[in-house]
Amino acid sequence: LARGADVDTVAPYTYASASDDDRVAALLEEMAAGRVDAIAFTSKAQVQRLIEVARKRQLDALLDAGLARTKVAAVGPVVAAELADAGFRVDTVPDDSYSMKPLVTSVCELLGRR
Predict the structure, then answer these.
(1) CA nearest neighbour of 79 among 54, 55, 106, 58
(2) What is the pLDDT along the chain (114 residues), one digit of tens a residue?
(3) 81 inside domain
(4) Is residue 64 part of a domain?
């Protein structure tokens, strides 16, 4: 600012409000019904949010069934550990680079093995 720079505040991540619980619950239903091939988690917060909504809505059985039927990808070992700690399996994690492109590649390879 002292050197004349203009600063724009950017929020690269915004977390869903309680009003979006319906969308999360709908996702759980779709996953449990087998209508979702894969889900990719890019943060621990996403894992926690899915679990939070399932518990709040008493949809734990849907969460368990959905994650059992759906291929699960994690962007890296931290997110994979969060899923494992919650009792869920992880089908794929990129080998050496934990960013979006390797994650997408990993998911494509996983789905190609169906």
Answers:
(1) 106
(2) 455 555 555 555 556 666 689 989 999 999 999 999 999 999 999 999 999 999 999 999 999 999 999 999 999 999 999 999 999 999 999 988 888 899 999 998 988 865
(3) yes
(4) yes
